[in-house]
Amino acid sequence: MNGLDSAQLRTLAAVVAEGSFEAAARLLHITPSAVSQRVKALEEAVGQVLVRRTRPCAATEAGRPLLRLAGQLALLEREALADARGPLTGGGRTRVAVVVNADSLATWFPAALARLPQRSGLFFDLRQDDQDHTTELLRDGSVTAAVTAQREAVQGCRVIRLGAMRYQALATPEFAAAHFADGLTAAAVTTAPLVVFDRKDRVQHRFLRAVTGRPLEPPVHYVPSVPAFSEAIRLGLGWSLVPEQIAAADLATGRCVDLAPGRHLDIPLYWQHWRLESDVLNALTAAVRAVAAETLR
């Protein structure tokens, strides 16, 4: 094999990012047949199947390092061209994919992006996942960087501690009176409805174990939207842990009360990104660290 074809690598990345051969063809302005031919040629060169033809398409184990390479090459290529001939115009577009946990995305992380200098042709592709699972997308090469609770560096990545996101246990005064008249006891927790983001979200269960000393499984409402999650608590559907940045307004107005005054849960967060010398990554990392230092514990 005489090296890897950059066009084929870009096509592989487009198929995985867009989820189908047809969508990749629209992005690259070529036919679906050309997309298929490029991916097949790359698979023949490597001697491995690189894409699972599912809906959406996904990289195989063999395809993941090539997907990561494709993203790194695209980023470095754009920066080299910008250095050589000035800011790109027209079709010079590069996406930087970042995966962030929902609470960071709803609170402090967008401010980090807003601090970056405006760059022609640079776009962000933000993904959302639980903080305990965000590094999975780094491992498979789908994203360039991640906000994560995992402090162990993914292979080929750097890791930086950002601080901790603090959570407080909230409910409406009426809900608290009805279910927690004697406080956040194990007996009350087993019957009081709990609002949870999704099935990956175990923050509340971690808090309950810390407070009661027991692994409890309360009745659960799943609400996979940060605005709807907070509104469900305000409407008395259940209780839950809320980031202090969101909880502050509801506590100040009396719409909600703290179910465990003096008790909270701090989730350490880390920034992991490809080990790559890139002006874009360096600028993004500096902005993320600065905003995190102002916002997190």
TrEMBL record:
InterPro entries: ArgP, LTTR, LysR_HTH_N, LysR_subst-bd, WH-like_DNA-bd_sf, WH_DNA-bd_sf
Annotated keywords: Activator, DNA-binding, Transcription, Transcription regulation
Superkingdom per UniProt: Bacteria
Listed Gene3D superfamilies: 3.40.190.290, Winged helix-like DNA-binding domain superfamily/Winged helix DNA-binding domain (1.10.10.10)
A molecular-function term among this protein's GO annotations: DNA binding
Transmembrane segments: none
Occurrences of domain HTH lysR-type (ranges): 4-60
UniProt similarity note: Belongs to the LysR transcriptional regulatory family.
PANTHER family: HTH-TYPE TRANSCRIPTIONAL REGULATOR ARGP, TRANSCRIPTIONAL REGULATOR
This protein's name: Transcriptional regulator, LysR family
Organism of derivation: Micromonospora echinaurantiaca
Lineage, broadest ranks: Bacteria, Bacillati, Actinomycetota, Actinomycetes, Micromonosporales
